[in-house]
Amino acid sequence: MKEKLLKLKEEALAKITDAAQPDSLEAARVEYLGKKGELTQILRGMGEVAPEDRPAMGQMVNAVREAVEAAIELRRRELSAKALEAKLGKEKVDVTIPGEPVVTGRRHPLNIAVGEMLDVFTKMGFDVVEGPEVEYDYYNFEALNIPKDHPARDTQDTFYFTDNVLLRTQTSSVQIHVMENQKPPIRVVAPGRVYRSDAVDATHSPLFHQMEGLVVDKGITMADLKGTLENLARMLYGEEAVCRFRPHHFPFTEPSAEMDVQCFACRGEGCRLCKGEGWIELLGAGMVHPKVLRTCGIDPDVYSGFAFGIGLERVTMRRYNIDDLRLLFENDLRFLGQF
Ligand code: PHE
After folding, report:
1. What does the pLDDT read at residue 108?
2. Which of 222, 249, 250, 282 to mutate to test the pocket of ligand 1 (most atoms within 8 A of CB)?
3. Protein residues whose CB sits closer than 6 Å to any atom of ligand 1
4. Residue of the nearest CA to atom 2 in ligand 1?
5. Does domain 109-336 have CATH number 1.10.10.10?
6. Cα–Cα distance for residue pair 322/339, rounded to 1 Å
7. How many Å apart are CA 311 and CA 194, to the nearest integer?
8. Which residues of the chain are under the pLDDT cut of 70?
9. pLDDT recorded at residue 238
10. Would you state the pLDDT for residue 222?
11. Which residue's CA lies nearest to atom 4 of ligand 1?
12. What atom in ligand 1 is closest to the CA of residue 213?
């Protein structure tokens, strides 16, 4: 028995020191110390040893087991040290190799232009608000004094989900939400997406962006409207920007106007950019219709207000000399990288 044990020990230690891989080391461990391993079997067989020999035998078996365990642990450390060394050797870093350029993202030109405009308005004391893009007929049309038979409600012009729910065609819907929830003084701008059933071309897209402005307080007049919007035009097109207001019609403002800026390419002479007009249309605006104020629970005999709506693609295109609206939506990195 003693001899058998010593032989086993020698064999095991040899196998362990010879193990070149963690796998073969593990195999050796199982072979001797595993549930069905040889040493385990011997320990199990202790019952058959004569009682007087048992303590000495037990001690010997345990000594062998400890020696084998220690050898395995030692070998395991050696193997992992070797593996680490090999790995470090392979992963040597050549610090002289030139780095790869990192491509940083840029802001979309539309967002740059909107950010600049929001800057101007927040400095004038406006809050920035948002409204839903999926809207009830009431907010997009009805409360804005656009009656049921108005041509803007045609399915040709508007995306409907149901008779009553649609994609908003204008950010003017946000005016109603604001006036429902807030009493004057009100001074807000609301940028966002709007939708119209248009085919895509160089100047049209079924999805585009507007920024709505709304001011309601006691004693607000057309002069406040003009001052505010001229301030915006100067920021966008420089101190010398010249503006003009043309009478226009919107159902939710009275009086209504469109504001043009003098063409900065030809200074009003007429050129390709302004299509010979000398002026470029910038936005729609007007004094909030008393009916709209009343619908929102604001007394038009006490309060008055002005509102305006700006097409943001148009502003961005002029600002950066972009001649095709589609460029703003295609996300071609060669284009976007220029801003
Ligand atoms: N909502 C109008 C449009 O889409 C613009 C506008 C807004 C006009 C506010 C007047 C007041 O054309």
Report:
1. 96
2. 250
3. 170, 172, 212, 250, 253, 284-286, 307-309
4. 309
5. no
6. 11
7. 10
8. none
9. 86
10. 97
11. 170
12. 9
